[in-house]
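Revision sheet: structure tokens.
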Amino acid sequence: MKLNKIYSAILLSTLPLTPALAAGLDRSGQSIAAFLQPGNYAEAGISILDPKVQSNQLKVNDMAEDYYFPSAAIKVQATEHISIGLLYDQPFGAESLYPSNNPVFGANGEATQVEVETHNLSALIGYQPTENWNFYAGPVYQTVQGTVSLRGLAYGGASKLGSYDINLKEDEAYGWLAGFAYQIPEIALKTAVTYRSEIKHELDTTETFGFGAIQRPNALTEVVTPQSVNIDFQTGVAANTLAFANIRWVHWDQFAVTPKFLNAASGNNLIDYSDDQWSATVGVGRKFNSHWSGSASVGYDSGAGNPVTTLGPTEGYWSVGLGGQYSPAENYFIQAGVKYFWLGDATARTGTTNVGEFEDNYALGYGLKIGYRF
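Predicted:
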């Protein structure tokens, strides 16, 4: 069952590629797997998610928008003991649009909608005192921006918050990450623990009421993206076969977005979560021959509390995924994957009022990645 470095690296690349759909605003899963590849390595990928989130009770056929997010990474083994890397991803986000003809979430031909976008650039430096150990840390640059429109009876109608808009202008801030990895390359064993700090943003904010008739500019809204811990593990279990697992914790239970004038008008937060997120993925990867390999995985996500905001009314998930990889040569590969999510039922809430139930939700995720060793 002994594996050389190139062979184990090829198998490592069969880890599931398809995108995360997780509690709160979590999207990418913030993996650093590319930085732990042997030698010099670069990759670029794109993930697409097609969810369906519905409520028969509220006559909502689908309020979740499709979205995609790219990722990229480069890692250089500068010396025998020092490595450096740069990782790009979009760790948090939301994309939702209710039907405008539904009076619960629409008014005046307009609909409740949300768009939240983040970008992360993580710079890492690693120290490998021996072949087995890797200690790494580095700064994280992050941007956040968002827009939200509330419409309809779910928010009290036009006389209350059913005619409210908020524009959170892009803000940049810094955090950090640190971790360690242990490996035995001969048997493809590798385990890593990575901590990411919370990052505090203060976004220039404009709030409007009455379909834009009343404007409240020049406020600041605090958004703190949460701290997290990722634990990754893999090991060879038989000739040509790997087992792998990932456990992720995200500190959502104190997360809240509280715009100044919305809070003054209602006493409520725009978005908040009540529980931390726990998620896990386990699976196997297998090398069929020198060019083809594949993987299968099962995933679970706890969600971040229920009831949940109307802007993302699901509670956790179960998932299954399949991935395939074609390696024309030892130094590069093309990978594709698909994942199906059974999204958990949830009660949607505005403030302290339950609006209704969202049930029988699901999603399909797709991914494509190219990796190159140089």
